[in-house]
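Tokens in:
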């Protein structure tokens, strides 16, 4: 498939910089419908910075909140790469406002590649609702029944 965004475009679209940019690659894109995106989990990810050299292997687990955040960033890319999307209002960022029927079924560790499959349920210029799953090696580790995001001004209550 041609026309997939590379790292520079992904970084330009997401309002996250290092260390919170949690999408490395877009593998597939059907604008407005579905995206398959990846995040490689590495031992140098910021969430592991506080682990001591002697920490047991069991301590090296990507927090579930970062799995959700990475999935959410893939969803934002799907929203922004929709050929029918409008440019968000100046000063606004996408914010997760609803999460329903979400289940964590497994864990991610350094060396794993999260593969997010995100499907659009509904979209408009100011909100989007998606569903999907995150897998590692074909094994589902998270299911997202419904996530909704809106564009909001982070400085306003």
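Residues out:
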């Amino acid at each position: 498939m041609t026309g997939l965004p590379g790292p520079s475009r992904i970084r330009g679209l997401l309002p996250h910089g290092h260390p919170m940019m949690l999408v490395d690659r877009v593998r597939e894109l059907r604008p407005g419908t579905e995206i398959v995106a990846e995040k490689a989990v590495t031992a140098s990810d910021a969430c592991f910075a506080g682990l001591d050299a002697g920490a047991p292997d069991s301590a090296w687990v990507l927090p579930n909140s970062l799995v959700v955040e990475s999935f959410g960033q893939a969803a934002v890319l799907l929203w922004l790469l929709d050929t029918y999307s409008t440019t968000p209002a100046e000063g606004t960022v996408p914010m997760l406002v609803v999460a329903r029927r979400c289940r964590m079924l497994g864990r991610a560790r350094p060396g794993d590649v999260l593969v997010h499959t995100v499907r659009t349920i509904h979209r408009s210029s100011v909100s989007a609702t998606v569903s999907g799953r995150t897998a590692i090696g074909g094994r589902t580790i998270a299911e997202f029944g419904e996530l909704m995001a809106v564009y909001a001004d982070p400085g306003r209550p």
